[in-house]
């Protein structure tokens, strides 16, 4: 493992991670921690490979950051990955509406059956001789 330039002060990887942190406002804490951890692991592995190939520590970090790309594009891709598509939302709304409509229809039917039973049982006691078919 190569020594981190963070031990000597701010390095290219730390600057990149700080930029990633600044541009990732709005992500949930767990998602942000995962994104930062994955980015740091990728950057450190890439810098270590460049250092093993003969580059100086600082140059290896610069190369890793250059290959990594812009923080904003990574955050945008992460937000797109986490976004719920409109088709999924519409399907959930429709299924919820169907479920509530079905429950309502069953309730109305059950209340009609109960009403017929109550009328058939109570009418003779009240002196009415008509029965509901």
Quick summary of this structure?
This protein is mainly α and 133 residues long. The chain contains 5 helices and no strands. The protein has helices at residues 12-23, 29-52, 57-68, 71-82, 86-126.
Shape: rod-shaped
One letter per element, helices H and strands E, the order comes to HHHHH
Q: Radius of gyration from the CA trace? A: 33 Å
- Secondary-structure-derived class: mainly alpha
Low-confidence stretches: 3-9
Largest β-sheet summary:
none
Roughly how much helix do the residues carry, as a percent range? over 70%
| Count of distinct structural domains | 2
Give the strand content: under 5%
**Overall pLDDT:** 82
Q: Gap between N and C termini, in Å?
A: 87 Å
Number of helices: 5
SS elements, strand count: 0
Structure description:
With 133 residues, the chain is an all-alpha fold. Helices cover 76% and strands 0% of the residues.
Sum up the structure in keywords.
133 residues, 2 domains, 0% strand, disordered N terminus
């Amino acid at each position: 493992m190569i020594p981190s330039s963070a031990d000597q002060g701010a390095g290219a990887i730390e600057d990149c991670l700080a930029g990633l942190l600044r541009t990732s406002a709005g992500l949930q804490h767990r998602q942000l921690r995962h994104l930062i951890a994955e980015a740091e692991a990728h950057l450190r592995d890439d810098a270590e490979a460049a250092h093993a190939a003969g580059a100086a520590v600082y140059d290896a970090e610069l190369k890793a950051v250059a290959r990594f790309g812009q923080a904003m594009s990574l955050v945008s891709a992460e937000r797109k990955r986490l976004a719920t598509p409109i088709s999924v939302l519409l399907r959930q709304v429709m299924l919820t509406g169907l479920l509530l409509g079905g429950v309502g229809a069953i309730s109305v039917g059950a209340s009609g059956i109960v009403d017929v039973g109550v009328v058939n049982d109570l009418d003779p006691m009240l002196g009415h001789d008509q029965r509901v078919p």
